[in-house]
C-alpha cells in the first residue's frame, strides 16, 4: 500500500511538473510571437491613427468644438497599452499550442521579418493621406498593365479573408459607435436597434468598396519588396490550419477591440454633440 501511495504521489508530481513546464514553454513562445509580430509598435501606430480620426469626427459631428479636451479624450480611449492588453488576452487564448509553434516557424524567419517590417512601415506611412493615394495609384497601374503580381495579391486577400472580415469589422464598429451615441443621449430615443442595423446594412456596399480600395492599396505598397516566390510562401501559410486559426484569431480579437473603442468614442462624442445642441 505504501508503495502504491508513493507511486501515485510520484505520478501526480510528474504530471504537475510536466504541466508547469508545458505552460512555461507556451508562455515563452507567446512572448516570442509578440516580439516578432512587433505588436507594441502596431498599437502605437493605431494610437496615432486615433488622433487623426479624432479630427475627422470632430469636423463631422460637432464642427470643431472639441478642441484639446476632445483630443485628450480620444487619446485616453486609444491608449496603446490598454488596447494591446485587451487584444492580447483574447488573441493568445484563441491560439492552440500547435498554431503558436507553427506561426513562429513561419514568422521567426528572414521572410517573416521582411513581411512584418513591410506591413508596419506601410501602416505608419498611411498616416499620410498622400501616401495612401499614391498606393491607390500603384494598384490602378497594376490593373492597367495586367501585372501578374496583382493576381497573387488578390489571392492573398481571398485566402486570408481580408475583404469580408474587414467589412464585418467596420460594420460592427459602426454599430458600436451608434450605441455609444445613444448611451450618451446624442441620438433620438425613437431610433430603434432595428433602425440602426438597417441603416448600417444599407451602407454595406460603401463599406465594401472602401475596404477593397484600402486593402489592395495596402498590399500593393507593403508587399512590393516581396518576390513572387515569397508571396506564394506567405499565401501557402495562410492556407494551413494554423495559418487560418492565426488569421481568425487576429480578426476576432481586433474586432472586439474596435467595438470597444468605437462604443467609447460614440459615448465621448455624445458629450460634445449634446452640449452643442443646448
Automatic annotation (TrEMBL):
InterPro entries: DUF2059. Residues 82-139 form the DUF2059 domain. Keywords: Signal. Residues 1-24 form the signal peptide. It comes from the Bacteria. Pfam families: DUF2059 (PF09832). This is DUF2059 domain-containing protein. The lineage of its organism: Bacteria, Pseudomonadati, Pseudomonadota, Alphaproteobacteria, Rhodobacterales.
Amino acid at each position: 500500500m505504501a508503495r502504491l501511495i508513493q507511486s501515485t504521489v510520484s505520478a501526480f508530481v510528474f504530471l504537475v511538473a510536466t504541466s508547469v513546464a508545458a505552460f512555461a514553454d507556451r508562455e515563452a513562445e507567446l512572448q516570442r510571437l509578440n516580439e516578432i509580430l512587433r505588436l507594441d509598435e502596431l498599437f502605437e501606430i493605431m494610437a496615432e491613427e486615433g488622433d487623426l480620426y479624432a479630427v475627422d469626427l470632430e469636423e463631422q459631428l460637432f464642427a470643431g468644438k472639441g478642441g484639446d479636451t476632445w483630443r485628450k479624450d480620444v487619446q485616453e480611449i486609444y491608449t496603446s497599452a490598454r488596447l494591446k492588453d485587451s487584444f492580447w488576452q483574447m488573441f493568445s487564448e484563441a491560439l492552440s499550442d500547435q498554431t503558436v509553434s507553427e506561426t513562429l516557424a513561419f514568422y521567426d524567419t528572414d521572410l517573416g521579418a521582411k513581411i512584418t517590417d513591410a506591413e508596419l512601415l506601410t501602416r505608419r506611412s498611411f498616416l499620410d493621406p498622400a501616401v495612401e493615394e499614391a498606393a491607390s495609384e500603384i494598384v490602378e497601374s497594376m490593373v492597367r498593365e495586367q501585372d501578374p503580381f496583382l493576381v497573387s495579391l488578390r489571392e492573398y486577400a481571398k485566402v486570408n479573408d481580408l475583404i469580408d472580415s474587414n467589412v464585418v469589422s467596420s460594420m460592427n464598429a459602426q454599430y458600436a459607435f451608434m450605441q455609444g451615441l445613444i448611451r450618451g443621449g446624442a441620438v433620438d430615443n425613437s431610433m430603434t436597434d432595428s433602425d440602426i442595423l438597417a441603416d448600417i446594412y444599407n451602407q454595406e456596399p460603401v463599406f465594401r468598396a472602401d475596404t477593397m480600395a484600402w486593402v489592395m492599396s495596402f498590399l500593393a505598397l507593403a508587399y512590393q519588396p516581396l518576390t513572387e516566390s515569397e508571396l506564394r510562401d506567405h499565401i501557402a501559410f495562410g492556407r494551413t490550419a494554423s495559418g487560418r486559426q492565426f488569421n481568425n484569431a487576429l480578426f476576432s480579437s481586433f474586432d472586439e477591440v474596435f467595438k470597444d473603442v468605437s462604443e467609447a468614442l460614440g459615448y465621448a462624442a455624445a458629450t460634445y454633440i449634446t452640449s452643442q445642441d443646448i
